[in-house]
Amino acid sequence: MRHTIDWIHPDFLNPEKLDEETRRVFDICHGCRRCFNLCDTFPRLFDLIDASATGELESVKSADFAPAVEACTLCDLCFTSKCPYVPPHEYNLDFPHLMLRHRALEFSEGKVSTLRQMMAKTDVTGTVGKAVAPLANWATKEGNALTRPILEKALGLHRKAALPKFQSTTLVRQTRDPLPLNEKAPAFGRKAVIYATCYGNYNDQNIGLATRKILAHNGVETQVIYPGCCGMPVLEQGNIAAVAEAARRVSTEFRSWIDQGYEVIALVPSCALMLKSEWPLILPDDENVQMLSHATRDIAEYLVGLSKDPGLAEGIQPLKEGVTVHIACHARAQNIGQKAAELLRLIPDLDLQVIERCSGHGGAWGVMVENFEVALKVGKPVAQQALKAKNRIVLSECPLAGTHIRQGMEKLDEKAAVDIAHPIEIFAKAYGM
CA geometry: angle at 132 spanning 127 and 136, to 5°? Predict the structure, then answer.
């Protein structure tokens, strides 16, 4: 079970109360160490305590906690897959939400720069990037020796980190016209509203376009909407109030669709996790937020469910090549199982290799100067497994993780040549789309 985030309570941002809780949790973590290889937070924490005068937390200054706190990407995996002390255990540990309190305190103290805050406003950057897409993509291109050092100095973006590309139009604009439905499909008559997400709307429309085609072939009527960003980037900065505002606005628009019998599909697992889990914990009394949480499915989760009841439309054909699929951390944190792998196994005779380990990217965290090399280090086992599988096609439910895995593979082997895609794109290919 997970407790609501009591972010309005005065004690939430009380430095003394926060330090007291941090020391309680860190002491338990130091004695357990089950998360030692999950991310860089825990090695930093354990090394800090082990190297102290007594080898115990009592001799560590609170000011020295910062590197461990900064390494947390709020992926939730320690809570969902590793920690034996989460509620209802009497220790009552929720490590990611403890780190969120630290971020919230830093944000309230003005320690997040205006430029960093602007970078997290994806609707602003997406709108601007769309308007100047060719120029923006040239300036952010890997290897651009003219602009990348400038971006590194001005924005803190590591000059070697792959950055999302912008499109000159949006997914919502491209999907205004309805697609013809397969009336012979078992699922004919069902309706789904697709949450474009900021990435799907501004950066990579192929995920949404493939989803629509697959669902139309399966008789599912779809509408694509984008009321705004889910707030994950600003949550990472500790701006919980902005997340709450986004949750109220977006859930209100989705409510009208849910009332009409539409199911909700999120194209990116991070956004699905926000709608399903984080928003209800931030606004537990908001009826629209709670209703949206229950109605939302990850795209792979939705299609796997469709395959079981009432069944998928015919037409799935074998592929000539094998594929490697990475199960994204925010998909794992939803506790839905390996839905991307389940979906791909519906393709006849597919040679499939599955990797379930953190890519190291961590959203915006992994592209920053201070984190990029650490992100590659954390993701090295994934890159090694992908290279060992020897499949040209490497998939990830998280588009940012996919690009990061490619960079990790290229660092280990300069000759590595891979195509990065979303599992839904390969499933569409199996349908001949």
Answer: 100
